[in-house]
Amino acid sequence: MATDTFNEIVGRVNMRVPAASRFLAQDWVRNAWRDVKKRRKWSFLHKRGQFLFPDLYNTGTVAVTRGSTTVTGTSTVWDQTMVGLQFRIGVNAPIYTIQSVESATSLTLQNAYGGTTDTSSTYEIYKAYVTVPSDFHSFITVWDPNFNWQLHLDWTQTELNAVDAQRSSRGNAYVVASNDYTMSSTGVVGTVLQALGSGTSPVSSGTYSGPNNAIFTIEITTGGDTATAEYQWKKDSGSYTTGVVTSATAAELADGVMVAFPSGTYVDGDVFTISVTAGAVPGLPRYEIWPHITQLYVLPFMYELEPEDISVAGQVLPREIDGNLLLEYALAEAAKWPGPSSDKPNPYYRLELADRHATKYEQMVIAHEQEDEEVFMQDVVYQDAQGMPFAPLPALGDSDWMQKHDI
User: Are residues 293 and 160 in the same domain?
Assistant: First the structure.
């Protein structure tokens, strides 16, 4: 069983090519690993996961304003489990993703609402888009054990829009369509500033996940020591969340903003502010499951993962990969390197030697692929791909489609 580490292979390169710096040897070994892992869908890159779907939520009514990201509920009981789910009103407006949930009756959308302003509208919250695991590279298969079929993976948003631009179809899922990328929050939470009073100050922490810069206001409403004093807080000009008991353990206000109250005396009427700065970077691929699933459901899937770089601390090669494979690639690169300068040539520099290492590397890769094929067969072709158990797709332009579309 191969347990070679990055540093061990780099050391073996430096033993043979002492003229090369350790940094150069590390680069050769990293490149070797990157070349190997892209050669095929190795068995050690296969992993399983599952997409969990909640029941559709539509309790109460909502007030929405065109151009605003804020949604206000009446008789709603929203919670943090809804962050990342989709929000929609009817089928004539786009589908929006919930950025944050401020309270049981207030949430924020990632994008400003573009439909008509409405003070009392029915709505839906459910999962239309799924986010893949952090080590995801590509799907191998997504299947539905309830209906004994697998879903199609080759659809795009363009094709979905041609068939169901309103996304009015619900029920049995047929398609996994590429959609977009999640936005990973990188917002900064500022330090607590005392705006009024002179009592003990709380401490802020966390990573802000909101879409816009904001100011959180905290006001002590009942003085006393930690765990006895109470406070209220709000975001920007929103309404206060009242009657919160102070705690030395950090608690989330909203959007990833955390606040803790160290031991001390807090004075009734003291006011504090926390300034937060928004920031986001592209995160993980997000896919649309269509038709949309609006009930408790699960879709298992198998995917090819993107392995950690071999140089990451603690990483070892998979047992299927011999460290000598990476060594041969690195030595081929070393033999093509003339040296740091003309007066300090690389004694290992010989192009014919580089060719021999490259040839041996290719032979070893082929042998590794043959061995891996015995573990996980991939080189197989089916004569009739249509005979495979895929979900039945609705025919574009059939009688059912025409009945549902005004053409």
Answer: yes
Judge if 194 and 85 occupy the same domain: no
E strand intervals along 54-169: 61-64, 70-74, 86-88, 96-103, 106-109, 118-121, 124-126, 129-131, 136-144, 149-150, 152-155
Q: What is the pLDDT of residues 93-116, one digit of tens each?
A: 999 999 888 899 999 998 899 999
Do β-strands 224-225 and 297-305 pair in parallel, antiparallel, or remain unpaired?
Answer: unpaired
For 238-255, write each residue's pLDDT tens digit: 889 999 999 999 999 988
Residue 211 and residue 345 in one domain: no
Q: Is residue 161 domain-shared with residue 103, that is, in the same domain?
A: yes
Domain that holds residue 337: 6-42+318-375
Calculate ∠ Cα 82-219-255, nearest 5°. 25
Tell me, rounded to whole angstroms, the distance of Cα 74 from its chain centroid: 32
Q: Are 329 and 32 a contacting pair, CB within 8 Å?
A: yes
- Rounded CA gap, 186 and 334, in Å? 40
CA atoms of 21 and 108, how far apart (whole Å): 53
The rounded distance, in Å, linking the Cα atoms of 13 and 32 is 12
Residue 311 — φ and ψ, nearest 5°? -80, -10
Same domain, 122 and 175: yes
Distance (Å, whole) CA 289 – CA 287: 7
Phi and psi of 246, rounded to 5°?
-65, 150
- Put simply, whether the predicted model's pTM sits higher than 0.90 gets the answer no
> Is 16 found in the same domain as 141?
no
